């Protein structure tokens, strides 16, 4: 263990409300990723074993009219899902662990993750509102677009807040390190 890490007393997670909110976000997003988000990219060979997940996905697409989750031809969208699998999911695990253990290193990864997720969800919401009706696999009413927007927006707003908080933590850490270096 490094001297810096060992010299800092571990502050319980429940005493750090912002970290607790981020911890809950990452912990809750792990099963959400596996059980909902990534279903469209699972290989067909495992479909017999994941029938409940496929039905849940069908239910979601039918009831919420999400053109991205329901259209396998949206390569750009599925690229975002693969990025969630190979890039975001490891960050969920690491960030949850690091926040729980009060590791400053969490904030840099949260900053990177937050910037990434905002830049993936904003194009989804923008496409939802700016694409022409013929570009979707089925008809979507303006009311359905608003409902979908309300479902996607927490993944813009909360990561924006995390980006702000984690960036400030990284900046404070750098300023503290500079002060120590000057002494």
TrEMBL record:
InterPro entries: EXPERA, Sigma-2_receptor-like, Sigma2_recept. It is found in: Endoplasmic reticulum membrane. The keyword Transmembrane applies. The keyword Transmembrane helix applies. The chain crosses the membrane at residues 20-50, 75-94, 106-126, 146-164. Keywords: Endoplasmic reticulum, Membrane, Transmembrane, Transmembrane helix. GO terms for cellular component: endoplasmic reticulum membrane. Belongs to the TMEM97/sigma-2 receptor family. This is Efficient mitochondria targeting-associated protein 19.
